[in-house]
Request: fold
Amino acid sequence: MTRKNEKSTSQKESGKLGKLIAALMSSDLALMRAIEGRLSEKFGAIDLVSDLFPFDYTNYYTPEMGTQLQKKFISFDEMLAIEHLPEIKNLTNAVEQEYAIDGKRRINIDPGYVTHAQMVLATTKDYSHRIYLGYGIYAELTYVCRKKVFQTLEWTYPDYREQHSIEFFQQVREKYLQQIREKSR
Reply:
């Protein structure tokens, strides 16, 4: 077996790598910080954190989570094999339920990943543009990269259409590319 074939076999075994990200939303900022700590214990150090911004794009979450919701995005230093996304989403769903009161969530955690070409979010909700991954989890393509810049799609959520959101995930993409270059040396 040639060296090239050994590398391909190794890549197949470990799976395609992506940079793990998560969106956190809550009106309880102390809880949000605690969840960041929990996620960091599970997935490794957090390397990028967006600014906090008000989530006032929809009233969808109001009956369950109340008003004055705040949101932020985080990314993790360690890369993940993207086939683990369903397992990660189910874990974050369990964390949401752990902190729920009377069955109502106090925090929403949406994991996903960034690669050179895309940003994908995990969801439990089926829809025509979502791909079933297994274990009750779907993948939603949120951004595609064109000419080295993330572009929104017709179904991209309004908060992900904001310039500050696109810029944050562009930074995550740059970090991903840097880490991939370092791994290939």
Notes: The first helix runs from residue 3 to 14. The beta strands are 17-26, 46-49, 53-54, 70-81, 108-114, 118-123, 130-134, 137-146, 149-152. The two ends are 21 Å apart (CA to CA).
